[in-house]
Amino acid sequence: MKRTCLRFVYLGLITITQSIHSNSFKLGLETISHKYSKKNNSNHHATRFALITNHTGKDQQGRRTLDLLLDNSLQITCILAPEHGFAGNVPAGQTVITECDAKTGIPIFSLYKHGTGKTVDKHIYETIDAFIFDMQEAGMRHYTYLSTLLYTMYAACEHDKLFVVLDRPNILGNRVEGPLLSMDVAEKKSFIAAAHIPLRHGMTIGELATYFNNHVLEKPIRLEVIKMQGYHRQTTLPSTLAYNLSPNIINKQSCYGYSFLGLLGEVRPFDVGLGTAYPFSTIGLPQNILTPAAWQQLQMQLHKAGITTTFCTYEHPRKKITYRGLHLHIAAIEQVHAFEALLNVFDFFKKRGIKYTFSADFDKAMGTNLVRNYVQGTISRSTLAATLNTTLKQFWMQARSSFLYEPWPLITTIR
């Protein structure tokens, strides 16, 4: 069959441009069998599911996962909503309330009460036989949809429940880079530092679930990953975001920018556009801190890393501060070494006398204190690189049995 370039509208995640066989690409949601259907369980009660999802759970025609599963006669007794809520409109860190789905009346229970994603109400276990997970995450370890996957798998392990994952593409492609979660950070039990995986993991949600089951949980659960069809890790890449992933990841550029600006935003005096029309798409400093010539030098440096920029000046509506800086555009995220770009940005501003103040969440989001130590000058670049590159290779060797698609994720070391 002749290979053609087709465009699929992937509502709930992205519009995908991919060289594939005609009509061959399907999400896990679109390949799920009818074995869980009430119609196929005539001899015993149907499997009662708790559906872990939000506004990103849709098929390529924009139909909700909830509605499709109900149409296929699956019994959904409740919905479990992550950070930002079922509709995806709750600001970061704020409590998600319990409510009901307006269309079906199915109760929606919060997994994010009082700023924690670790809560599954005890009464839920009495009404379900299994969990089913369908949600798009952002390709980064510190994004909490990934943490929600891990903690609900812990719950399935503790209560001996089946766990079904409907697989989706990784928005950031196939690169594996950055530090692994260190033990000292993991012991602090932060929800943005839940999984012992690299910062940018290069895996699909189904591969992550497989890895967690093989190497993170104390004992394996009954896990079933419903794979995608026609997925190719290097060519199934985003063109646009049809729906925001969260209130601050509103388009492709904010998602791509989050791969390193999500961490730069934890350091003062930088502004990365949160609260403006360009979240995670801007590097800004209060005006007059840096000269136009210096900004031009950074512009050239980022261009070499595959990131194009334009100069910008903006007043932050909440901070009431005027910022000057660069508005970023990334055309091909699979070609951008985001973690090395972050280190180089730190080096650039440090050489120009910018003093850094790190937030309490910086080490947690980064997964280690080594990067902060490097930026503060207590360890060398060679020491940082040797440590991180070694742990990346060790992780990859352990994780390769969990990869479900070709080509396998690509380790990207730092220099």
Can you put this structure into words, describing what you see?
Strand 1 and strand 2 form a beta hairpin. The protein is an alpha/beta fold and 415 residues long. Helix 2 packs across helix 4 (205-215) and helix 5 packs across helix 7 (338-351). The protein has helices spanning 65-71, 144-158, 183-186, 205-215, 252-264, 292-304, 338-351, 362-366, 370-375, 381-399, and strands at residues 4-9, 15-20, 48-53, 75-81, 99-100, 107-110, 130-134, 162-166, 175-180, 198-200, 223-226, 237-240, 267-268, 282-286, 307-315, 322-330, 357-358, 410-411.
Largest sheet: 7 strands, mixed
Strand order of the largest sheet: 5-6-4-3-7-8-11
Determine the strand fraction and express it as a percent band.
15-25%
Q: Let me know the average pLDDT.
A: 89
Report a brief summary of the structure.
The chain has 415 residues and is an alpha/beta fold. Helix content is 26%, strand content 21%. It has ten helices and 18 strands.
Question: Top keywords for this entry?
Answer:
415 residues; alpha/beta; seven-stranded mixed β-sheet; three-stranded antiparallel β-sheet; 10 helices; 21% strand; disordered N terminus
SSE blueprint:
Elements: E1 4-9, E2 15-20, E3 48-53, H1 65-71, E4 75-81, E5 99-100, E6 107-110, E7 130-134, H2 144-158, E8 162-166, E9 175-180, H3 183-186, E10 198-200, H4 205-215, E11 223-226, E12 237-240, H5 252-264, E13 267-268, E14 282-286, H6 292-304, E15 307-315, E16 322-330, H7 338-351, E17 357-358, H8 362-366, H9 370-375, H10 381-399, E18 410-411
Parallel strand pairs: 3-4, 3-7, 4-6, 7-8, 8-11, 9-18
Antiparallel strand pairs: 1-2, 2-12, 5-6, 9-10, 13-17, 14-16, 15-16
